C-alpha cells in the first residue's frame, strides 16, 4: 500500500512538472521571437549627415535615427515630434516651439532649442555646402545668410530658453509642418560635429535623438541600429535592433529574402514579379516621385534644345512601364507627379501632358538641330546610370528605341552610386539617369529641383524666368494664384526640357508576413519605428 502511494505521488508530481514545463515552453515560444529586423538598403549611404544628405536611401536610415520638431505618425499624418507644443502668431510668420521636457539625445543629455539653432544655422552656412539648404529659405534671412549677404545673427532663429525655440519666417508658409519633417531639419549634436570632421564615418560617433542609434557600421556591407532607451517614446518601440544590409543586386537580395535572411526588400527582380504579386507579402504603393534622364546642356549634342525635345519624343514610355518596369509605374510627360492636391483637383491632371510620343517630329528636330549646329554626323552620346539591374534594363530599352526611332547609337556606362553622383556633380557627363522624390507633397518641391541656384540641378540649365516664378509662388498668399504660378513654371521647364521624364514611380515591396506595424508613406521609404516581429 505504501509503495502504491509513493508511485501515485510520483506520477502526480511528474504531471504537475510536465504541465508547468509545457506552460513555460508555450510562454517561451511566444516571447522567443527576437525583435530584430534585417532590411536591404541596397548600397552604402552617400552621407549620414542630415545637413549634407540628398539621398532617399540615406534619408531612410536617418529617419530611424533622428526626429525633428514635426514628424509623421504611423498613418502618414503630420504631427508634432520632439516638440510638445507650437504657437503661431496671428500673421503666420512667427512659430514658437516648446520642446518636450523628456526629449533627450541617445547619450542621455537633454535635447535643447540651442541644438536646433546650431543645426539649422550649420545647414545654412555657405561653408557647409548643404545641397538642401534652400529648404530652410522660408526662414527670415536664411537665403541671404546662405549667400553671404547678412550675418548669422540676422537669421530668424532665436533661443528663448533651453526648451523654447522661436522661428520667424519670410512670409506665412502653409506647408511648414510638412517641410520640417525632412531630415535637413533634424538636429545634430554640436560637440560631436565639431569634435571630428569625419564624425559621420564611424558608428561610435553618432549621438541621435530618434528611436534608434547606430551601434555598428561595416562599410559597404551593413549598418546596425539599436533601440534608443533615452527616446521620449521608447515604450512604443518594440524592436531592439534594425540591420540595414547593402546588397545592390536585386536577384541576390530576393534570394536572401526567400531564405529568410532579409525581412524586407524594395527592389524585386522583374522575372519574379508575376510569382509574388498575389502574395500576402507583396505591397504596391503609389510614390510621389519622377524617374528621368537629365541632360548636360553645356555638352553637345544637348546644347541644342531641339535635340533634347527629340530624345523625349522618341521614347515609348508605355512600352517601358509595361515591358521593362512591370511594377505599376505610369508614363510621365511632365515633372510633377500625381498626388498634389489643389482646390481645383490634382495638379498633374490639371496641367496635363506637355509633349507626346512622335517619332516623325523627333526625326525632323534632329535634322534641324544638325543643320543649325553644322554637324555632319550626330555627336556620340553616352547615357550614364548608377549600378542596378533596374537602371540597366531601362537604359538598354531606351538605347534600342533611340536606335530604332532616330538611328542614334547610344552608349551606356554605369558607376557605383557615390561615384556616379560625383561624376554628375562635376558635369562630366552628357545624359544621366536620376529620380526625384518630393520630400513633402507639393508641386514646388519637384519644380525647385531645376532652380538655377539648386545644387541638385546638375544639368547646367538656368532660366531666370523660371526661378522668378518659383520665387513668386513661394510668397504668394492667394492659393489659386500660387498654383497658377507653379503651372506656369512647369510649362517653362517643359519647353526648354533640360531633362526627359520617363515615368512616375510606384513602390513595390516584399515584407515578411511576420513583420507587423510597418508605416508605408507615399513620398518616403517605409518606417519600421513601430514595427514588431511576430514570427
TrEMBL record:
<dbReference type="GO" id="GO:0015833">
    <property type="term" value="P:peptide transport"/>
</dbReference>
<protein>
    <submittedName>
        <fullName>Peptide ABC transporter substrate-binding protein</fullName>
    </submittedName>
</protein>
<dbReference type="GO" id="GO:0043190">
    <property type="term" value="C:ATP-binding cassette (ABC) transporter complex"/>
</dbReference>
<keyword id="KW-0449">Lipoprotein</keyword>
<keyword id="KW-0653">Protein transport</keyword>
<dbReference type="InterPro" id="IPR023765">
    <property type="entry name" value="SBP_5_CS"/>
</dbReference>
<keyword id="KW-0571">Peptide transport</keyword>
<dbReference type="GO" id="GO:0030288">
    <property type="term" value="C:outer membrane-bounded periplasmic space"/>
</dbReference>
<feature type="signal peptide">
    <location>
        <begin position="1"/>
        <end position="19"/>
    </location>
</feature>
<dbReference type="GO" id="GO:1904680">
    <property type="term" value="F:peptide transmembrane transporter activity"/>
</dbReference>
<keyword id="KW-0732">Signal</keyword>
<keyword id="KW-0564">Palmitate</keyword>
<feature type="domain" description="Solute-binding protein family 5">
    <location>
        <begin position="78"/>
        <end position="456"/>
    </location>
</feature>
<keyword id="KW-0813">Transport</keyword>
<dbReference type="InterPro" id="IPR000914">
    <property type="entry name" value="SBP_5_dom"/>
</dbReference>
<dbReference type="InterPro" id="IPR039424">
    <property type="entry name" value="SBP_5"/>
</dbReference>
<dbReference type="Pfam" id="PF00496">
    <property type="entry name" value="SBP_bac_5"/>
</dbReference>
<dbReference type="InterPro" id="IPR030678">
    <property type="entry name" value="Peptide/Ni-bd"/>
</dbReference>
<comment type="similarity">
    <text>Belongs to the bacterial solute-binding protein 5 family.</text>
</comment>
